[in-house]
Design brief:
By secondary structure, the chain is an alpha+beta fold. It has two domains: about 35-75, no CATH class; about 75-165, K homology (KH) domain (GMP Synthetase, Chain A, domain 3). The protein is built from five helices and seven strands; from the N terminus they run ββαβββαβαβαα. The protein has helices spanning about 10-20, 75-95, 115-120, 140-145, 150-160; strands at about 5, 10, 35, 45-50, 55-60, 105-115, 125-135. The strands form three sheets. It has a three-stranded antiparallel beta sheet, with no helix packed on it. A hairpin with a 7-residue loop joins β3 (about 35) and β4. The longest helix is centred in the middle third of the chain and has 23 residues, at about 75-95. The chain is globular, with a radius of gyration of 19 Å. The model has no long low-confidence stretch (mean pLDDT about 95).
Length: about 170
């Protein structure tokens, strides 16, 4: 029977942990997404995302200040949504594994960036800072501090090796 804590099935989590422990702490996963830029109208870019049970078509536009249509949300909004949702899930996973039951968890993300270097080559940093505020109904400061192993959070906080090639 499933043990549900904070909307997570801890029975499944424990089975996954057994597999990870059996492989010396590893559980390799790959994520592949394909998208296409459209040269007319909005959305300017579309991609199909999938879950275990469904597929979703998403549209993205550049903001008008960069010549985009501005109808659909921007790439950075998707990035921030990914980071916040992944980080929230990691906090909930950590809390659940420690037996902490939450009834409220809200995250606010604040991205400070400069689009100047996109149009005027310089050494100025494009992204200055990402701030995340966490609001919860329990004191989870230690859980927050220990939840930085979220993959999306890790990507933006550690600068992951990136390779781009034309095929």
């Amino acid at each position: 029977m499933a043990e549900i804590v904070n909307n997570l099935d801890l029975t499944v989590v424990r089975e996954t942990k057994k597999k990870i422990d059996a492989d010396g702490g590893h559980f390799p996963v790959e994520k592949h997404i394909e998208g296409e830029f459209h040269f007319d109208g909005s959305p300017m870019f579309t991609a199909t995302l999938s879950s275990n049970f469904a597929t979703f078509n998403v549209g993205v536009d550049e903001p008008m200040v960069l010549g985009g249509k501005g109808v659909y949300t921007s790439p950075l909004n998707y990035l921030m949504t990914g980071v916040l949702s992944c980080y929230a899930s990691t906090i909930v996973l950590s809390a659940s594994m420690q037996g902490v039951k939450l009834s409220k968890l809200k995250l606010k993300g604040h991205l400070f960036y400069d689009i100047g270097p996109m149009l005027h080559p310089s050494d100025f940093p494009l992204v200055k800072e990402l701030k995340i505020e966490v609001e919860a109904d329990k004191d989870i400061r230690e859980i927050i501090k220990n939840s930085t192993r979220c993959p999306a959070f890790y990507i933006v906080s550690h600068g992951v090796k990136t390779e781009v090639s034309q095929i």
